[in-house]
Design brief:
Number of helices: 3
Helix content: 40-55%
Structural class: mainly alpha
CATH topology: Arc Repressor Mutant, subunit A
Number of domains: 1
Strand content: under 5%
Bound molecules: zinc ion
Distance between the termini: 25 Å
CATH architecture: Orthogonal Bundle
Radius of gyration: 11 Å
Order of helices and strands: HHH
Largest sheet: none
Number of strands: 0
Length: about 70
């Protein structure tokens, strides 16, 4: 499993990987991006990505760990 962002090499969190899968390709196994690079790629602010992640988490998407 890839551990760092494919663009900026920042260590990836579970949410970064989940968001990349949701936004680009659910079946992908490499080329994951951090939230900042995802935001740049889609031309939105990082806040928009965070909102989407929270929305997906609330929806029960299994790609995103539930907050304790
Ligand atoms: Zn990055």
């Amino acid at each position: 499993m890839q551990n760092n962002c494919a663009i900026c090499a920042k260590p990836l969190e579970n949410d970064d990987i989940g968001a990349t899968k949701k936004l680009i390709n659910r079946g992908m196994t490499e080329g994951f991006l951090c939230k900042a690079c995802l935001a740049k790629r889609f031309g939105v602010s990082e806040g928009v990505i965070n909102e989407k992640i929270e929305y997906w988490r609330e929806s029960g998407c299994l790609l995103f760990a539930k907050k304790q």
